[in-house]
Task: inverse folding
């Protein structure tokens, strides 16, 4: 994992000093609310429904156990004892006091953390595959490039006031687990004719009010040109993106207006002047960053030790958890473990201070002191020896982070919704909980298999409802909360935007509608066919008919 | 903090910024006064602006194309870039283009909704003069030294930090 050098440390401390002064000026009345807003947003600070909300950056979702303990400590001393992991692999605190935010930032700086650019119209936290570095299907490790992008984007003097927020995702694996097709810029591994691995550059994807799948503007970008090319894309967007209407200010609108070919040509023209400039990455530059992401000291272990196979055969609950919550690893004798933050009754992505400390302890005891935040709002222990899985599961169960539901219908991705967010039109958490309760029977849930359910409380789509196989969007009708269902969304190699199936539902009717959709799936599926595959094969009509059929 | 800063020091500003009136015409000024005129007006009559007794600089709006000025840059003493709102970042890209692509060497001045908080990033992209917005002069905020380094290539630091880290002197 990347370690700060003295320059990183100094810059983060200087940012704390700067923000402390800006906060002081606001509290003293020297800055108006309008003037303070863009300054505080660029430091992740929102004024929310109940209190300020502080979003802390977790670059590409990587955490050390010491950092997670610090987050637990902050949750306990400055907040109400919990935090919320977001789809951008960050963590949010919902109840800090505005005047104490600079102190929180100072504490974060001691563990190489900050809140820089977690909001605002700038380049946000770069995201990647939660299994980067350990995934079996990886063609190159995206993490050095993520760190290079993190540094390039941090306080970039030219791109501090873009037309809108800007999100970049990177994936170095065959399977795209970073949703690169629905980001402002997606970088997904591709190969040239010589067989070298570089980046396919995808621009103009995004969710929100106008969901779009991105366009490939360059099939192959050699990796050494990463930063000069990013500079070119950002400069074209900064100069020509719309600023008159915030709903039309995202790069996807510009790409559409210019056509992907026109946009690509404009970028190439800009790039001509930047290409091979000083920001070109040499092998030794990349090697410097790659040196932080070398393999930990894996033990020479064999796959399927008796400590694993015994419990798997004897303990059905453990076997279920193993099947759903662990993943294959590049290193023999190891698995990656997903700690579910989707227990029924708990808001998706929420984590208590005790749970943070427990997870940090497991990272030390069963791993190499590292964790990941998955964009599905779960925690990942990337390197757990197979012989330790049974012990880990037993203790994770006690801490309620072993719900065996990863990838299942109850592993709901959700924004915090109207209970917290001042933008939301509807609450997410009670409806997410109602769905979890409705599908609480594990046998039934397992029979349904892989289903991505995504939930957003408003059009801003923080819960990525458009790319859920089933998506829910909270809508406001004359002051009442309603819920619109979309079907057919997906991420990864088959990225698609879901379609609204019809009129929205009252809160109590959402689980009922889900039940009917599942009935249709079970009736129509072919052997071994996943929900999304059945849906694609039979179309949305049979689902619509059942959901909207008169009761009598 | 004073209203006009150049090269890090408070200065007396001898230039007058001419913005078109409601009728679209520029206010008339004595011919020996130093004036800054909008790009369109300047391009319309570049020879006259260049040959008057007083000096003439150009005001760029954020959506102006700096390439239009390229043939005139060598003789220009001042370019001002307008920031209609401090959250409008287009002027930062224009500054880099003028400095780094077109090698403009004269004064590059930020005008409009310009705050002390912005000076450092404006300086990094090539501005060397700042006309601070009325009422913002006295505030604290940023200056050149808020941050002791920067990660990226910029006009003041053509070597990115990653290069300086790896290539030690």
Result:
């Amino acid at each position: 994992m990347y370690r700060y050098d003295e320059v990183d440390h100094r810059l983060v401390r200087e940012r704390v000093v700067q923000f402390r002064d800006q906060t002081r000026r606001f509290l003293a009345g020297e800055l108006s609310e309008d003037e303070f807003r863009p300054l505080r947003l660029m430091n992740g600070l929102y004024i929310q429904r109940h209190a300020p909300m502080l979003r802390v950056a977790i670059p590409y979702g990587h955490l050390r156990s010491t950092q997670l303990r610090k987050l637990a400590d902050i949750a306990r001393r400055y907040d109400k004892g919990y935090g919320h992991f977001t789809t951008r692999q960050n963590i949010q605190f919902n109840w800090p006091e505005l005047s104490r935010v600079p102190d929180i930032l100072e504490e974060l700086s001691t563990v190489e953390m900050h809140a820089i650019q977690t909001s605002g119209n700038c380049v946000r936290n770069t995201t990647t595959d939660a299994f980067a570095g350990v995934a079996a299907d990886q063609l190159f490790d995206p993490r050095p490039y993520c760190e290079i992008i993190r540094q390039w984007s941090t306080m970039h003097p030219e791109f501090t006031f873009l037309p809108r927020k800007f999100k970049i995702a990177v994936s170095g694996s065959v399977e795209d687990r970073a949703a690169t097709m629905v980001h402002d810029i997606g970088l997904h591994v591709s190969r040239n004719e010589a067989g070298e691995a570089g980046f396919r550059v995808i621009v103009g994807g995004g969710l929100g009010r106008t969901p779009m799948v991105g366009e490939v503007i360059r099939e192959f970008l050699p990796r050494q040109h990463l930063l000069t090319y990013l500079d070119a894309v950002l400069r074209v967007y900064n100069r020509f993106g719309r600023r008159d209407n915030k709903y039309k200010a995202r790069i996807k609108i510009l790409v559409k207006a210019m056509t992907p070919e026109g946009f690509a040509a404009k970028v190439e023209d800009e790039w001509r002047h930047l290409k091979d400039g000083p920001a070109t990455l040499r092998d030794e530059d990349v090697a410097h960053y790659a040196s932080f992401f070398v393999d930990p000291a894996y033990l020479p272990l064999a796959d399927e030790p008796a400590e694993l196979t015994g419990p798997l055969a004897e303990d059905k609950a453990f076997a279920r958890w193993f099947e759903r919550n662990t993943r294959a690893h590049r290193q023999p004798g190891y698995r990656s473990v997903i700690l579910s933050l989707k227990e029924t009754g708990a808001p998706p992505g929420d984590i208590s201070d005790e749970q943070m400390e427990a997870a940090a302890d497991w990272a030390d005891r069963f791993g190499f002191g590292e964790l990941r935040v998955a964009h599905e709002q779960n925690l990942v222990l990337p390197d757990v020896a197979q012989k330790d899985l049974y012990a880990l599961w037993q203790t994770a169960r006690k801490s309620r982070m072993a719900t065996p539901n990863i990838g299942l219908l109850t592993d709901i991705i959700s924004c915090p919704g109207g209970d917290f967010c001042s933008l939301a039109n509807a609450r997410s958490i009670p409806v997410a909980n109602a769905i979890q309760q409705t599908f609480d029977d594990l046998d039934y849930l397992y029979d349904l298999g892989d289903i991505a359910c995504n939930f957003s409380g408003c059009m801003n789509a923080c819960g990525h409802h458009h790319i859920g196989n089933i998506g829910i969007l909270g809508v406001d009708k004359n002051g009442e909360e309603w819920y619109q269902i979309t079907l057919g969304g997906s991420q990864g190699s088959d990225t698609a935007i879901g379609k609204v199936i019809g009129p929205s539902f009252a809160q109590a009717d959402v689980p009922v509608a889900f039940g009917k959709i599942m009935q249709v799936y079970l009736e129509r599926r072919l052997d071994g066919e996943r929900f999304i595959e059945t849906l694609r094969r039979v179309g949305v009509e049979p689902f619509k008919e059942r959901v909207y059929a008169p009761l009598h | 903090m004073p209203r006009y800063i150049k090269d890090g020091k408070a200065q007396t500003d001898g230039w007058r910024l001419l913005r078109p009136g409601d009728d679209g015409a520029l206010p008339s000024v004595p011919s020996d006064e130093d004036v800054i005129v909008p790009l369109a007006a300047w391009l319309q009559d570049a020879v006259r602006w260049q040959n008057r007794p007083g000096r003439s600089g150009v005001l760029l709006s954020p959506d102006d194309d700096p390439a239009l000025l390229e043939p005139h840059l060598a003789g220009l003493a001042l370019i001002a870039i307008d920031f209609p709102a401090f959250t409008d970042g287009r002027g930062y890209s224009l500054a880099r283009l003028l400095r780094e692509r077109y090698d403009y060497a004269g004064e590059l001045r930020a005008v409009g909704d310009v705050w002390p908080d912005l000076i450092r990033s404006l300086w990094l992209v090539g501005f060397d003069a700042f006309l601070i917005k009325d009422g913002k002069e006295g505030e604290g905020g940023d200056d050149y030294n808020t941050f002791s380094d920067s990660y990226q290539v910029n006009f003041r630091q053509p070597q990115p930090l990653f290069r300086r880290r790896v290539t030690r002197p």
